[in-house]
Every structure is written in C-alpha cells, then in structure tokens.
Amino acid sequence: VVILAHPGKLYTTHELEQFRTQGIDGLEVIHPSHDYELQKTLGHYADRHHLLKTGGSDYHGDGEQYHAYFGIVTITSDWVSRLQEAIDRRGGRKSWSPA
C-alpha cells in the first residue's frame, strides 16, 4: 500500500495529481507540519479521489524535530480499518520501515 508522506509541505497540487494518476493509495493527512486548514484540504482531496487517509507524529527517535508529538497525534479507527483492509486485499502484512 503506497501512502504519500506529509504531502502538504512537499508537493504542489499538480504533483499530487501526478502521484494520484500513478497509483498512490493514500495521503498522510495528519502530520505535525500540517495545520488544521491543510489537514482539511488534504482530507477532502483524499475523499474526492477515494484515497486512504493516514497520519502520524513523524517521530524518528529522541532528539528529532517532532519528538514532542510522539503518542499525541491520533487518527480515527475508521482510517486504521480502511488501511488494514487495503493491506489484506493485497495479501500483505503489517510492517514498517524506519525512514
């Protein structure tokens, strides 16, 4: 399952469209660098294009930029269920890769 991480600060709308047409499955909507308005915009974009929505703290260890958000940033159980369903449909398993 391909999720575009923190797209709001890295990509233009045109680039988002390119990623979408190339087959991404979802967007990281909730991210410490995304303010509320950007989260709403990305959430609406994901809904309009039937993309998964995810979120996270971007925590990569002590001393990192977003360490204060570890355990605070949350997403809905519906988002988690939809992500798991997408993983299951592809015969995948839960895993993560430290960036």
The spatial strand order of the largest sheet comes to: 1-2-3
Q: Specify the number of helices.
A: 4
Instruction: Name the overall outline.
Output: globular
Using the coordinates shown, work out and report the CATH topology.
TIM Barrel
Percentage of β-strand residues: 5-15%
Our count of domains comes out at 1
Can you identify the CATH superfamily?
Metal-dependent hydrolases
Q: Give the total of beta strands.
A: 3
Alpha-beta classification: alpha/beta
- CATH classification, class level: Alpha Beta
Query: Could you tell me how far the N terminus lies from the C terminus, measured between alpha carbons in angstroms?
Result: 16 Å
Radius of gyration: 13 Å
String of helices and strands: EHHEHEH
Structure report:
The protein has 99 residues and is an alpha/beta fold. It contains four helices and three strands. It has helices spanning 7-10, 13-21, 36-48, 77-89; strands spanning 3-4, 26-30, 52-55. Strands 1-2-3 form a three-stranded parallel sheet. It is globular and about 35 Å long.
Summarize this structure as a short list of keywords or feature phrases:
99 residues; alpha/beta; TIM Barrel; three-stranded parallel beta sheet; 3 strands; 39% helix; 11% strand; globular
Topology summary:
Layout: E1 3-4, H1 7-10, H2 13-21, E2 26-30, H3 36-48, E3 52-55, H4 77-89
Parallel strand pairs: 1-2, 2-3
